[in-house]
Design brief:
The chain is α+β, with helices and mostly antiparallel strands and about 375 residues long. The chain contains twelve helices and 18 strands. Keywords: Iron, Metal-binding, Oxidoreductase.
Length: about 375
């Protein structure tokens, strides 16, 4: 069972006190050196919680923080452009292009729409030197900023994957990073999101719906409040609570693909975005590291699917109208994670599950990533 974690504090939101959930902090510099204690720290975070802060306040991480600031400036310029320019190519594919606000279900479920617009840039296309990006970026010479940001994010997430492989006792082809090779096609994406003020979108088009990510790992940067998570476990009513922005840190969480690859031992993070300050423009940067398209694993329905298939099926569920989302497998939007909490009283109650120790996890794990 996941450990019982008391919220260290609460914050006022929508007329009530809402938890601000605490979490582990992982030092990127130590992780880069494969420090045994830090490898154990990140492994426990993924096995027990599914998320952690990544401290980048060191010589190895500061470059990423600089790239993040440059990307933030780029985003603000891009999203100020007219819709005709931003939507020059539309959504070219599910992991590439521009999505206008109102394309998906919103933060508060049935009958609502999302309150953000998003630009997605494919790592594969950047690597090939032929990215399809709208003219507000191409014409302003910002491609170099995107290349730097994607390169930094890719390095950081691969370091985390490598540490998790080591912590799980994986060797050779079974190591997680060997199913995330740079020269193999994947839907790995840098996504830049702009959440509009509620006074612009209206009360029924806000935030980002509750879900788990398709990815293996998500590396997220935001300096503003709004991200909420639901900790795993059965510790009473574990309601959705906020993640406090932490200077010099990224928020990292496990996605479905890595949970599946770990034999369901790792926790996939249930999260959503809500308007903490309904009057502000909110910006976030997310790097979704995804497995190679033809990598196969067993999903939460017990099916063998490729990473590419899982991506396409879940993306369709994301973008389907809410009435069709209700008809999809119950494990699709939340990746098989279950929940219980006062903010979602109709949700199925979690069944207690035993928590494997890192040593036991190593012994029990069979390689689940398989090349199709």
């Amino acid at each position: 069972m996941a450990p019982q974690v008391d919220a260290p504090k609460t914050v006022e939101w929508q007329g009530k006190r809402v938890p601000v959930w605490s979490m582990r902090t992982v030092d990127y510099g130590l992780l880069l050196s494969q420090d045994p204690a830090e490898v154990d720290n990140v492994l426990k975070a993924c096995l027990e919680d599914g998320y952690f802060y990544l401290d980048l306040n060191n010589i190895d991480g500061r470059r990423m923080l600089q790239d993040q600031q440059e990307t933030l400036k780029l985003m603000q310029r891009f999203f100020e452009a007219p819709i005709e320019q931003k939507n020059e190519f539309g959504l070219i594919s599910s992991h590439l292009g521009y999505e206008p606000q109102g394309s998906r279900t919103g933060a508060f479920g049935a009958g609502t729409k999302d309150g953000y617009e998003m630009l997605k840039v494919s790592r594969d296309e950047i690597q090939r030197g032929s990215p399809k990006v709208p003219s507000p970026i191409k014409n302003s010479g910002d491609l170099g900023i995107l290349e730097n940001s994607i390169g930094s994010c890719n390095t950081i997430t691969k370091v985390i994957l490598s540490a998790l492989s080591t912590g799980m006792g994986l060797v050779g082809a079974s190591r997680y990073e060997n199913h995330h090779r740079n020269d193999k096609p994947s839907t790995t994406t840098l996504s830049m999101m702009h959440y509009l003020p509620s006074e612009i979108t209206g009360p029924k088009e806000v935030g980002h719906q509750k879900h788990t990510d398709i990815s293996s790992l998500t590396l997220l940067f935001s300096e503003q409040w709004g991200l909420q998570i639901r900790p795993p476990g059965t510790c009473g009513a574990r309601e959705m609570g906020f993640v406090e922005p932490k200077k010099g840190c990224a928020f990292v969480h496990v996605g479905d693909s890595l949970r599946f690859a770990s034999g369901m031992k790792m926790q996939s993070c249930i999260h959503r975005v809500v308007p903490f300050d309904p009057k502000e423009h909110r910006y976030s940067i997310a790097y979704f590291l995804r497995a190679e398209d033809d990598t196969m694993f067993m999903d939460s329905e017990g099916r063998y699917v490729t990473a590419g298939q899982w991506h396409d099926q879940k993306f369709k569920a994301f973008t389907d109208p809410w009435m069709y989302q209700l008809q999809a497998p119950k494990t699709m939007i939340l990746g098989g994670m279950t929940e219980d909490g006062e903010d979602d009283p109709a949700q199925q109650k979690i069944e207690p599950a035993s928590e494997p120790s890192p040593v036991a996890a190593k012994a029990q794990l069979a390689p689940v990533f398989v090349q199709a």
